[in-house]
Amino acid sequence: MTIIEIHFCDKSVKKLVASEETTVKDLLQKIEQKMALTVDLDSFALYEETTVNGLVIDKYLKPDDLCPKLAAGSKFMFKKRFFFEDNSANADVTHMEFLQLRDDVISGHYVLCEREFLELAAIDMRVTYGNPDTNKHKPGFLVDADLLAKYIPVPFLKQRKPKEWEKLVLDEYQRIAFDPIDTDFEGKLRYIEKLKEFCEDYFGAVFFEATELILVDKVVRDHIPVLLAINKVGIHTFKKPAPKSKDLPQNMLIRTNTFQEILGWAVHPPTKTFIYTVPSDSEEGLKFTFESEVAAEMPDLCQSYVQLIIQSSNPQDGEGETTDE
């Protein structure tokens, strides 16, 4: 028997006992019991998280597989694999969704303007500290405790001096006090609702670090660093900023293809390549090609969303049938 550490999006850790026969599903059930999760359980998953060339890579672990031995520098992460159901009536699931969405906001995965992420930061402070107290929440409260990184997205953190960011966050914290939030649960719901309002098309996406391959006559002409986002709408491609660009330091949405228009997808495991096709004047359609350490996981996630869409559209017709390349 061994002790396994399970990490969560708020940096907390829980320890579980496992044996050589323990499956990923066994671990998931233990975690769900510890976290009092009782609904939408299929949307949660276990990942092996590692860092490759400075990029965080989450490898999805299939439930029926035996719990793997972690490579050096890796850790187990418990997260939602997809956002589909409305869980606003369940405080425990809402809490998990809030933690993950907040983590993606701070990581810079969501494209937000300053006004938007400051409002989210203020709501987050309300969840953490309750209503603002001018005697306590004053200049120095965030800077002295080195807390700014918890509220300002990574791409923006160095765009202003710490004291400037602190003033903006605290001012917004005071402003939202005029629209009362009575409980932590209400605060988490408001955070989720606001993020959905700001980024409706790709809200709740799973994000993948990838490189888009630009092919001309089947020859790779360029490699473009991108962030792929897959959610219940479809596949969204964000171009990552150049390292020394003078433009805004965040990703830029360059393409959205809905599941209704996507003709199919495929993966080539040896080259870690994911491909999907949309209609075009060509009989073969227009293909988009991406390299990623976790390319093999993308088709299964797309298929899961399509199945959920079919089931929600035809709840009495079973799972339905879909095809992919």
TrEMBL record:
InterPro entries: Band_41_domain, FERM/acyl-CoA-bd_prot_sf, FERM_2, FERM_central, FERM_domain, PH-like_dom_sf, Ubiquitin-like_domsf. This is FERM domain-containing protein. Residues 2-313 form the FERM domain. Signal peptide: none annotated.
